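Researcher: We're teaching a course module on how sequence relates to structure. For the next exercise, students receive a sequence and then see the predicted structure as tokens, so they can try to spot secondary structure elements on their own. Here is the exercise chain.
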Amino acid sequence: MSARTLLSCLLLTAPLASAAGAAPVAWHVSPAGSDAAAGTVGAPFATIQFAVDIAADGDTVRLASGTYSGAGNAPVAWADKSLVIVSADGDPGSCIVACAGQDGFRFLDTDLSDAHGLHIAGISFADADTAVAVLRAVNGLNPRVWLSLTRCTARNGNVGVASNGGWLVLDDCAFSGNATAGIAGGFTFGLTMSDCIVRDNGVGLMFTQMNPSPHAEVTGCAFVGNGSGIRYWQEGGGMTLRQCRVDSSTTSHGIRTSSDFEGLLLDGCTVNGNAGHGIANSQGSAVIMTGGEACGNGLSGVAMDVADAALRLDGVRLAGNGGWGVGRYLRSDGKSGPTIPEPRVPASGTRARPAARPTRIWPTISTSAAATSSATWPAAWR
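Model: And here is the predicted structure for the students to work with:
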């Protein structure tokens, strides 16, 4: 399911209705406005925070073109209220929140009995500690906050977008130059992502997914030139990447997966030119790759842990890697046996045969569209 399709479903089902059944209201903001004004298109407010505070559940805050900075514009914080915050012309290049090291938008969910939907579109965030964040006061068993970002950018800050207990729906966004991560997630965490560019961040996408969580779906995205492209651990859920690039990571692997026996499914993806392994299965994942390639990486194209891991490759090109096409993952934490040095190509050009290891019987994992579609998720996740 694409991010656009999922967003349409969420906006139909999330509680985006104003209090007492009133029709949602649009509140207008402009750098040239006044917080003493009426908040209309002709008499806009001056600060985003003022509009957010006055808005009811389900209202829209519409930002005129310009640069928003200083108190009332960064940070902007609110809790337990579904909102739509969009630029008036839909162009993130003309609607900029200059954060000066502060957070951009921060939502806190304390009403754990209800669901909340947030939609942010056509806005750029610059120099933010965290450009957009969703936090839950208590970790639950399902993501109950849906945060959708459409045509947004977050650049030259610390973290682009972060979710702790929410579901991120990202479409046509760009995250670049963020020191820690472009996208970060934790605990019960959902991710549906399409047509995004994630480049030159410390880590492109990183998350720790605890408890039963939705299957992460990433389609048509580029993770390029990050320190590490994608790095994650999952207790449940699995992840599918379709027609994605994870290239040119500068200090580490393209993808580092570890999980409690979940699947990483790659369909038509390229994982090339990364400083470490192309794909590093450090613990417990079943890597299933169909089509695409893992070439020109500094270490192996695909590296597997010595135990509790599975691999299936179908029509995958492996060439020009510094180590093996498929080799062993270098472990240094001692969790599954002694440290195993990365295989090296001997001067003679021959390779020693790796030692045999016990065979683990893995369940069959289907890569069909029906099996990986969000339509197969539990109802609470749809």
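Model: If you want an answer key for the exercise: The chain is about 5% helix and 35% strand. Confidence is low (pLDDT under 50) at residues 6-20, 332-382.
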